[in-house]
Amino acid sequence: MSSIITVSGLHKHFSVPKRRAGLWGTLKALARPEMTVVRAVDGISFTIQPGELVGYLGPNGAGKSTTLKMLTGLLVPSEGEVWVNGQVPWRERERYVASIGAVFGQRTTLWWDLPVVESLELLQHIYDIPAARFRDNLAQFRALLDMDSFLDTPVRSLSLGQRMRADLCAALLHDPVLLFLDEPTIGLDVVAKERIRQFIQHVNSEHGTTVLLTTHDLSDVEKLCNRVMIIDQGRLLFGGGLPHLMERFGGNRELVVDFAEEYPAVDVEGAAVVARDGLRVTYQFARQEITASALIGRLSARYRIQDLAVREPEIEATIRRIYEEKLLESP
Ligand SMILES: Nc1ncnc2c1ncn2[C@@H]1O[C@H](COP(=O)(O)OP(=O)(O)OP(=O)(O)O)[C@@H](O)[C@H]1O
Ligand SMILES: [Mg+2]
Predict the structure, then answer these.
(1) Which residue, 69, 90, 106, 177, could crosslink 75 as a Cys pair with Cβ 3.0–4.6 Å?
(2) Mean pLDDT value across residues 72-99
(3) Cα–Cα distance between 103 and 105 in angstroms, integer?
(4) pTM for the complete prediction?
(5) What values do phi and psi take at 255, rounded to 5?
(6) By C-alpha distance, which of 193, 167, 73 is closest to 112?
(7) How far is the CA of 180 from the centre of ligand 1 (A)?
(8) What is the pLDDT of residues 200-243, one digit of tens each?
């Protein structure tokens, strides 16, 4: 299958005034600014297949929003190529935006002073959406996103969660084949987040919409994404599925065993005892070396076991390690 998004050697450099120390430095910088270059995106390449739901992750300032702005045609790259759905985003923008939807969680694309429904009707005209399709889509989205109670409210008076739902609805009214979401759950409570996630999942699985989203919430990733790309300082650190990520960087798994009786020694091949508290023993083992079931088999052949549990390393901790240690997947 051919890719719906192809990004190759993408760069975006910004020229910003150099900061100088002290009052004298500030005055000098104001009078004659010396410029320095920020490499927000510094040579990124990837492809995305139709129907994928991909998470684009990275610490603050990594270059996620800048990438999404280039993919939606808001920014022109300094270098590199982008093809989305057969088009170059920043050329023929009008035709291009008709094929994509985008939500930037930090700001709305709706008209501040208009009631939500009027904002949506305005979009119908802008995108030239046939009346029947608009009616059907609006009916579907307002039910899925539970929007009835605030359709007549001006956008400026909406709560953050309501605004995000209105923005998502607005981004999808014209049936785009692609959806770009920059922090769609930012600042929302757990219930609102879950609703947004279910909606994104629905759009992806029922309409086959390809989704690329950035988030700092790893529950979004766990619940939604079949693949993640991790970037830092404008470069790609990792690309792959979550199971692969955990296998590669997750570290050791743990097996916690409650023995049925006291044993003087509880050693077993393939695992190390890392804690012992009465009848409870915690083992650590490497997923590359032994499976949990093989380990349990070895233990139960030798000891009487009351109960046991396998503990997986947490995704959150694993991704934190990748950021902190700048772990790079070897090619
Ligand atoms: N218009 C701009 N002018 C100058 N520098 C910019 C501009 N836009 C972004 N940057 C810089 O580029 C880098 C990447 O910013 P970007 O907004 O893409 O990060 P991000 O990964 O989205 O971070 P966050 O998680 O905080 O949203 C940052 O150092 C930022 O300060
Ligand atoms: Mg951002």
Answers:
(1) 69
(2) 94
(3) 6
(4) 0.86
(5) -120, 120
(6) 167
(7) 17
(8) 999 999 999 999 999 999 889 989 998 999 999 999 999 999 88
